[in-house]
Amino acid sequence: MEKLFVQEVPEIYDGLIEIKSSSRDPGSRAKICVKAVDTSLDPVGACVGMRGSRVQAVVNELQGEKIDIVNWSEDPAILVSNALSPAEVQRVNVDAERKKLDVILTEENLSKTIGRRGQNVRLATKLLNYEINIMTDAEDSERRQIEFKEKTENFVKNLELDETLGQLLVAEGFSTIDDIKDCLVEDLTKIEGIEEDTAKALIERSKEFHQKDQEDTSQRIKDLGLEESLINLKGLTPGMLVTLGEQKILKLEDFFC
Question: In degrees, to the nearest 5, what angle opens at C-alpha 84 toward C-alphas 82 and 89?
Fold first, then answer.
């Protein structure tokens, strides 16, 4: 399909428009993501052509396969909104580290976004190389409440705080104990209700918990009997190593099997 667009769209052939990615359900539907190298060009319009002539030529070659042309963006939230069009997306929560996108929309847009037998969201997932979770506003609200409760309980239990202080920290954007450990006293005292002594105590408790957690994880890795070459493999965190050990992946050759 990409080669057909190169053939039919002179701007792509000349390097003025770049094909960033594509995905297909052969014989049914496809998506292609394009970016204008020459910013004066409309990449989608150029690929569609006058009265749809260019894209229609590609469709004819693919025996009538429906093609969605998606305008590329550096911002994953904008890109996924473009990829799921014509569904209207309310907002997108981006987790770039884990390459996950939570797409929130109204109940009315749900079936349109997912597509027949999940085709629309499946093609968008391949196109972006992100995991895409589709949810309604009500589902997102319920999930946020659960996350808020879990984060609060983590602070209350492991830092020995009262629930009100735990809730305050979560409300102010602190998600993990490491978030508190790595911040400055001044960052915490900016929060109404947290005095300097409390801020210092919070940071100290967070550091103590982190240290103990590191020691416990190291001991757990040792007890699992992981091979030294696997432990030293670049990119694996202690948490990942524990998971591998629990799955009985103890040697480097087991990891690459």
Answer: 85
